[in-house]
Design a protein that fits this description.
Elements (H helix, E strand, L loop, with lengths): L1 H15 L2 H8 L5 H5 L3 H21 L6 H12 L3 H13 L4 H24 L5 H21 L7 H16 L11
Length: 182
């Protein structure tokens, strides 16, 4: 049901995400979603946790600090998994008003930063924890920019070109620009 909630949220926004709408999207009997998720907050938290699970699996499939692999992941998120990313940002904004959702978001964000930290630390990058947090923040900004349509639509090559300086800053010792400062 959380997969149906993701699609509903991406296509209809927070106002359109109701138990009944998820029942319809999941093609289950009316009342099924509310049976498993008694409150709207429970549904939102479970949806955030499902998004984190899916993104964690995507990120875990990227080995090392390969720019091409990360570019492919971002391209995937902006094309084939676009609904997931839109739903993620919808929930991220909603988390500013809901403590339980905020806790789920904080947990998921911590996982992503920890994964990036491990990759950078394994690559021998000094100050890997700070650089990883900044790299994740920059990637999130790039994703949001593309999903919200705030910037020009980027091809896969454009995404790689946008990521290259972030990777160089994160991976190069002594580098003090965007991904290395904070």
């Amino acid at each position: 049901m959380t997969d149906a909630a993701i699609v509903t949220l991406a296509r209809s926004g927070m106002r359109g995400l109701t138990h009944r709408a998820v029942d319809h999207a999941a093609d289950v009997a009316e009342g099924s979603t509310s049976y498993y998720f008694r409150t709207r907050e429970a549904l939102l938290v479970a949806t955030m946790e499902r998004l984190a699970e899916l993104s964690t699996a995507d990120i875990a499939a990227v080995r090392g600090t390969d720019l091409e692999a990360v570019t492919a992941l971002l391209h995937h998120w902006l094309t084939h998994a676009r609904d997931r990313m839109v739903a993620r940002f919808e929930l991220t904004l909603e988390a500013t008003r809901r403590p339980a959702l905020r806790a789920a978001l904080t947990s998921a964000g911590g996982q992503f930063r920890a994964m990036a930290h491990r990759l950078l630390a394994e690559a021998g990058v000094p100050d890997a924890r700070r650089r990883a947090a900044n790299l994740v923040a920059h990637i999130d900004g790039l994703l949001f920019d593309q999903l919200a349509g705030a910037g020009p639509r980027r091809s896969r090559t454009d995404l790689r070109d946008a990521l290259r300086p972030l990777f160089e800053a994160a991976l190069t010792p002594g580098r003090a620009d965007a991904a290395g400062s904070g």
